[in-house]
Design brief:
The complex is a heterodimer of chains A (370) and B (312). With 370 residues, chain A is α+β, with helices and mostly antiparallel strands. Chain A has eight helices and 22 strands. Chain A has a seven-stranded antiparallel beta sheet. In chain A, a hairpin with a 2-residue loop joins strand 4 and strand 5. Helices cover 75% and strands 0% of the residues of chain B. The longest helix of chain B has 44 residues. The termini of chain B are far apart. The chains are: A alpha+beta (370), B mainly alpha (312).
């Protein structure tokens, strides 16, 4: 249980920079997810925390102690791998007890601890089996028990759920989260699955190409993404991104003009991108005209693909039954409050759109230039 | 019944095909086995019961070769004992242990350096055995010109050391071991490489140090290659004598005459073909017995069962 600090930590292999200088602070007992597509440096960061990779530069502290030079075996870090990495020739009991071999601990105390940890992850019935005789979910639990048995100060989970089937993944998600809250061990989860990150973690660190894009709560990342990357990566179905032009305190997308507010609004000139979540587009009497191209019922919601002058838009309607058919002509509106505007060059979010529009929230500053 | 005719025709063609497959797939191996193992053993057994000598003429079938082996050959037990010590020492010190050490060290260091050192250790195998033997003759040369004596005598001022006369058994163990270890090295290296990397990471995070990892992760994972190398190298050390023959020629006196070399000397240097054949027969029996014993004790049968690879 430790507070983790990374100070411009970086990792490079020769000329290839896997992790750009990164600053992070993870509080004691926090559950943090590092989220990003494959190759974004998330696993590298995790392996640096575990002591498996040595950072190329920067400082890493656990509870204020510099650990850069501390070997993996002396860091007291538990880690669960995607492949589980159980020792194939050992029984479950020996696998879980393996980390205790290297601690000064009486044998009976170690045996009791193994039993106790096995109960915690519900594998106490399987203690005498070998990993090859276990299902994926059971192996996953054993790997978790092995990581937890020595009460690590930091628990690292490297895509622990991606080898499980969908149902099991759902229940393991809840279980791991509950386990973490019970043990209060500082935990870092590495995943490419946004649902895993948003459902399990207190905070999410979103990475791309070796850089931290944004750190925040799941809600922050969804509602106030700092960059185009975060906006596009988080959210399913994905956000609609429409190219436009910002000038004179406004944004023009196709025929639609929006007023921009905020400090940066006045200075923003040039190409911009408007981001609209599918659920923020609603059918209306007037607005952006379009024709329904396709319908995908998703259970609780229906996803429409709508061909508009701005391009194809994804629209999510909160009903089990589609209210429109394929080919129907529709109009779409959206609240300016919900729209996100990004600078096309820097890909950063530049301004609030009418967050405090003079005419009030209901007024949509949309004018059709017919 | 006529309606079944096509079916039985099909069955017949199936059978023909099975026969063809049998011949195609097993045939070549069976032919080689017959030509180079079964046939020589039969010839050997036949000659062992004759009085064939230098003239290659057989005048009678007799058991006197075996009587001589059991009673009259004083060298025989000495050669057998020497072979036992030689095979055991070479195997225990070099072919298995040192091969394993080489594999462990060359996989632990950066890849390029590791490959370089493995290539160096393989060099003697690529050079003609005569060259290798000559190098050893130079290394242990009992004058101050010998490589070893350049250190012992030249650099440290000790007396000139004559390994060939003082410790001949050590010499043949060293000479065979240094070349033999590379086989184990190659097999163990590939076995170590096939261990999933995450197992090493997990072990390190679990608190295991370098030697713990060797003991708890690597050795269990390369159990089968270890058994294989032990069995294979035992057999090959039992029957091969080329380096001994080239370096010491069994001497001084009979101090390095291992069994296989003794057989060779009797048969081809003394021209006692029939006696040599009878002696060789013992070697075949010892080899088969050793193989079966190790097969039994090392549970090699499991090695030939279904693949034990875990699919991740």
């Amino acid at each position: 249980m430790a507070r983790i600090e990374l100070n411009s930590i970086t990792k490079a292999w020769g000329d290839v920079v896997a992790v750009e200088p990164t600053d992070l602070t993870i509080d004691d007992g926090e559950f943090v997810a590092i989220l990003g597509p494959s190759g974004c440096g998330k696993s590298t960061t995790l392996f640096m925390l575990a002591g498996i990779y040595a950072p190329t530069g920067g400082e890493m502290t656990f509870d204020g102690h510099l650990v850069n030079e501390v070997e993996a075996k002396d860091r007291n870090v538990g880690i669960v791998f995607q492949s589980y990495a159980l020792y194939p020739h050992m029984t479950v009991r020996d696998n879980i007890g393996f980390p205790l071999k290297f601690k000064d601990m009486p044998k009976d105390r170690a045996a009791a601890l193994v039993e106790e940890t096995a109960r915690l992850v519900q594998v106490e019935e399987l203690l005498d089996r070998r990993p090859s005789q276990l299902s994926g979910g059971q192996q996953q639990r054993v790997a978790l028990a092995r990581a937890l048995v020595k009460t690590p100060q930091l628990l690292l989970l490297d895509e622990p759920l991606s080898n499980l089937d969908a149902t099991l993944r759902l229940s393991m998600r809840t279980e791991i989260r509950a386990l973490q809250q019970r043990t209060a061990i500082t935990t870092i989860l590495v995943t490419h699955d946004q649902i895993e990150a948003t459902t399990m973690a207190d905070r999410i660190i979103c990475m791309s190409k070796g850089r931290v894009e944004q750190i925040g709560t799941p809600e922050d990342l969804y509602r106030r993404p700092d960059s185009l990357f975060v906006a596009a990566f988080i959210g399913a179905p994905p956000i609609n991104l429409l190219p436009g032009r910002a000038a004179g305190g406004g944004l023009t997308v196709g025929q639609t003009r929006l007023a921009l507010t905020g400090e940066a609004a006045g200075q923003t000139e040039g190409d911009a991108v408007l981001g609209l979540r599918p659920e923020h587009l609603i059918f209306a009497e007037s607005g952006i005209p379009g024709r329904i191209d396709g319908i995908e019922p998703m259970g609780r919601e229906v996803l429409y693909r709508i061909d508009t002058p701005l391009g194809e838009l994804r629209v999510l309607e909160g009903s089990a039954v589609p209210s429109h058919g394929v080919g129907a002509a529709v109009h779409l509106r959206f609240s300016a409050d919900d729209s996100l505007v990004f600078d096309a060059a820097s890909e950063r979010r530049i301004a609030e759109v009418c967050a405090h529009a003079p005419a009030g929230h209901d007024s949509m500053e949309q004018r059709q230039h017919a | 019944m006529a309606s079944f005719a096509p079916a039985s025709g099909f069955a017949a063609s199936q059978r023909a095909r099975q026969t063809a497959n049998f011949v195609l797939f097993l045939g070549p191996a069976l032919v080689l086995l017959a030509l180079f193992f079964v046939l020589p053993v039969i010839v050997d057994i036949t000659i062992a019961f004759t009085d064939m000598g230098q003239t290659l003429r057989v005048s009678e079938f007799t058991t006197k070769n075996f009587e001589r082996m059991l009673g009259g050959d004083r060298r025989l037990s000495a050669a057998l004992g020497l072979t036992l010590i030689y095979v055991f020492c070479t195997l225990a010190v070099f072919n298995v242990t040192f091969g394993l050490v080489l594999a462990l060290t060359t996989t632990a260091i950066p890849d390029r350096v590791g490959s370089f050192f493995r290539a160096v250790w393989l060099l003697p195998r690529m050079s003609p055995s005569v060259v290798y033997a000559l190098l050893w003759a130079w290394v242990v040369d009992p004058t101050e010109r010998g490589l070893l004596n350049q250190f012992i005598n030249g650099a440290f001022g000790f007396e000139v050391y004559d390994m060939m006369n003082d410790h001949p058994l050590m010499l043949i163990v060293l000479a065979n071991g240094f070349i033999g270890a590379s086989m184990g090295m190659i097999i163990f290296t590939s076995a170590i490489r096939s261990i999933p990397e995450h197992l090493f990471y997990a072990a390190r995070a679990d608190g295991a140090g370098g030697l713990h990892i060797v003991w708890h992760v690597i050795l269990p994972a390369i159990r089968w290659p270890l058994s294989f190398i032990t069995v294979y190298q035992t057999l090959s050390l039992l029957v091969s004598f080329e380096y001994i023959w080239l370096i010491t020629n069994g001497g001084p006196f009979f101090d390095t005459t291992v069994y296989a070399l003794y057989v060779y000397q009797r048969a081809f240097e003394n021209g006692q073909y029939a006696y040599g054949a009878a002696l060789a027969l013992v070697l075949v029996v010892i080899g088969i017995a050793a193989a079966l014993l190790m097969w039994r004790f090392m549970d090699m049968k499991r090695l030939l069962q279904q693949p034990r690879i875990e699919v991740q």
